[in-house]
Amino acid sequence: MKRFLVLALMVALLLTAVGCGGGDKSIKIGFLAPITGPAAADGESAKRAAELAVKEINAAGGIDGRELKLLVNDDRLDSKEAVNIANKLIGEKVVAVISGSYSGTTRAVAPVLQQAKIPMITAYAVHPDITKAGKYMFRQSFLGTVQGRAGAEVAVKLLGAKKISILAIDNDFGKTLGSAFKERAEALGATIVSNDIFPAGEKEFNPILTKIKGLEPDLIYMVAYASEGAQIVMQAKSLGIKAQILGTEGIDSTKQFLGVAKEAAEGVIITTNLNRDDERPVAKNFFANFKKAYGVDPDMVAASTYDAVYVLANALKQAKSTDPDKIRDAIAATKNFEAVTGTIQGYTAGGEVLKTVQVQKVQGGSFHYFNKIADPTVLTPPQ
């Protein structure tokens, strides 16, 4: 009986060890997004997309039979919290990180992860400093400079604007896109008649819009997030402003922008990296699967995050290793990858994605294809 009890105890201890992770062969991926706080809607969209991608990849056999394990963290749009998360993920031995967060928080974690030699793909944050942190940093959406220049191409070449007012949010996103747009638009021959900024969370735009109305611009270049953008277009309509409004990926949201602005959003044009009318199977399947899983249509944030996970998964398969240098090299070697947000032609030496900028127009209460910017001189980021 005594020998039996000892044997039983040994078996129990072995089973406990296995249950505590001794047999866990999953590949850990870190993830951060503002799931709560002022950017919770975008954070939740990014989280849903990342979880959907991981679920699909695992259902298809994972990475050579090993499942991906997504370690989800809420940075609350707080840079200090984001740094704490980065350090925690390093301790948890993740092989790579996906940022589903904004520029401020992603900028904060980039040097931390670079120092630890952990590759990171940022889904949609635009600030140049993110990839400047080092060779382990990659961007899935457009560098802010690229999207700003593309916006100028749309304004001047496609829409024929000659007098332009700029209205941009006072943060990394607004400053980067606004300055790049201004430089390119002026180089193309347009005149910037006003250049105004506003704080995040602003709701009253009548004073600025009244001033802009008096300047009679052909076009208003609006760099805003969905909540502020909805207020701007509604108040512009109520003031009788006739200028074409050109926005950015910041208002690429069916619920937060179109659902609030409603008819005031009709005719608004945006630069983004998601074409709602894309007929490629990879895009159509994503639209359908996201809607089925969550009951809502995906936005640019979701599509960009979903693509970031798939780019990483592809790199893991190509690397056939969880060694960070091999993963990093495999991401850098990505070529002609069919993603939801378009064909990824590759990445620059600085970690910037190369793909076409999509131009969407609000028609009948929905975003639809309007045009695209494919000029390599616009798309190639400055070194």
- Uncertain runs: 11-22
Mean pLDDT: 93
Order of helices and strands: HEHEHEHEHEHEHEHEHEHEHHHEEEEEEH
Q: For the CA atoms, what is the radius of gyration?
A: 23 Å
Q: What's the level 1 CATH class of the largest domain?
A: Alpha Beta
CATH superfamily of the largest domain: Response regulator
| Classification by helices and strands | alpha/beta
Short description:
The chain has helices at residues 2-22, 40-59, 79-91, 103-115, 129-132, 144-158, 172-187, 206-215, 226-238, 254-261, 281-294, 300-319, 324-332, 376-379; strands at 27-33, 68-74, 96-99, 120-122, 137-139, 163-169, 191-198, 219-223, 244-247, 269-272, 337-339, 342-344, 346-347, 353-354, 357-363, 366-373.
Descriptive account of the structure:
About 3% of the residues have low confidence. It is built from 14 helices and 16 strands. The protein folds into two domains: 190 residues, Response regulator (Rossmann fold, 3-Layer(aba) Sandwich), CATH 3.40.50.2300; 148 residues, Response regulator (Rossmann fold), CATH 3.40.50.2300. The strands form four sheets. It has a seven-stranded mixed sheet, with helices on both faces. Strands 2-1-3-4-5 form a five-stranded parallel sheet, with helices on both faces. Strands 11-12 form a two-stranded antiparallel ribbon. Helix 6 crosses helix 7 and helix 12 crosses helix 13. By secondary structure, the protein is α/β, with parallel strands linked by helices. The radius of gyration is 23 Å and the shape is globular. The longest helix has 21 residues.
